[in-house]
Specification:
Phage tail protein beta-alpha-beta fold, alpha+beta, 3 domains, disordered N terminus, Jelly Rolls, 8 helices, about 30% helix, 12-stranded mixed beta sheet, 3-stranded mixed beta sheet, about 325 residues
Length: about 325
């Protein structure tokens, strides 16, 4: 006899939880509706279990698929609302299975030697005197032994100012990402790990990149490059925007709004979306990453952009004004 699935819930109850999740996200719920919701939630253990999944979903909104865009949730009569609600219900039903990757990512970051949470930076001085600054949502491991000084960049972005090795044997200073390994040649440099790609910017000295099965490339001071398992990017000049994050700023120089939104999203929790109609709008300026609400207000005051939010600024949409 097959074992009972302790995660299974009645699909009709999940539909009701998804409906309440959408209604409460609309921001115009009356007191009587809230009382109705509380009565529904407390009316049975299965209702409470379904709503617990809904609350967990709210805490993980950053990973929701783009198909659940807020425009479909904003208008109860919108033809796409039912379809969107069905997707929400499906997510609630599959939560114990599909959210494992979120938990794995969280676990990997929390078990790192050093980390900087979303929206924060952290400065470190390692045992050899090397100074490392961690950008938002960054995690690293440190492996120093008698042969090498190695940083493993699990995720995020770092700025490294190497120090002379105090040990009798001059150990190389290395930074490892999923794509390859970099050796500092007496230098100051930044490294950013992206999905399937690593970015490198060299401010002083030089850095040797080694990619297994591909070869190596030396990047000199004043140059930036990148690499993946397929090869190296051509070096280009470093611009002033590379280290703006160390001053708590995001620099835009004729940047597409969609690209700007992707960058700003790194510094805040929740979902930040851009309407495709304004994705190619070009913006310029210096914007504070420590206060995303202020940055969004600056955009709205300068460009033809309307900023709307739901769920206490957790879900923010940029649309044409």
């Amino acid at each position: 006899m097959p074992s009972h699935d302790r995660h299974a819930l009645d699909p009709s109850i999940l539909d009701e939880a998804a409906d309440w999740l959408m209604r409460l996200s609309e921001g115009s719920v009356s007191d009587s509706e809230r009382q109705e919701w509380e009565h529904w939630r407390n009316s049975s253990p299965t209702h409470r279990q379904a709503w617990a999944r809904a609350e967990l979903l709210l805490s993980k909104l950053q990973g929701l698929p783009p198909a659940l865009a807020m425009p479909s949730l904003d208008r109860p009569s919108h033809p796409g609302r039912r379809a969107a609600m069905g997707k929400l219900a499906a997510l609630l039903a599959l939560a114990p299975l599909t959210w494992g990757s979120w938990k794995l990512n969280d676990w990997q970051q929390w078990t790192a030697d050093y980390r900087a949470p979303v929206g924060e930076r952290r400065d470190l001085t390692l045992t050899d005197g090397t100074h490392v600054t961690l950008n938002t949502d960054t995690a690293i491991d440190v492996y120093f032994d008698d042969r090498q000084r190695l940083l493993l960049l699990r995720r995020g972005e770092i700025l490294v100012q190497t120090a002379a090795d105090p040990s009798p044997v001059a150990r190389p200073f290395l930074v490892q990402t999923n794509e390859g390994r970099m050796q500092a040649l007496g230098t100051r440099f930044s490294v950013r790990e992206e999905t399937g790609h690593t970015r490198l910017a060299v401010l002083e000295g030089a850095v040797r990149i080694q990619v297994k099965g591909i070869g190596e490339q030396v990047v000199q001071a004043g140059q930036r490059s990148g690499f993946s398992a397929l090869g190296f990017d051509a070096p280009t000049p470093v611009d002033k925007s590379v280290l703006a994050w160390t001053q708590g700023m995001l620099m835009a120089d004729n940047m597409r709004l969609a690209d700007f939104v992707n960058e700003l999203s790194r510094y805040r929790s929740g979902v930040l979306r851009c309407d495709p109609a304004i994705a190619n709008l070009r913006i310029s300026g210096a914007f504070p990453v420590n206060d995303s609400r202020r940055t969004l207000n600056m955009l709205a005051q300068t460009y033809p952009i309307n900023v709307s939010s739901r769920l206490g600024d957790y879900w923010v949409m940029l649309a044409p004004a």
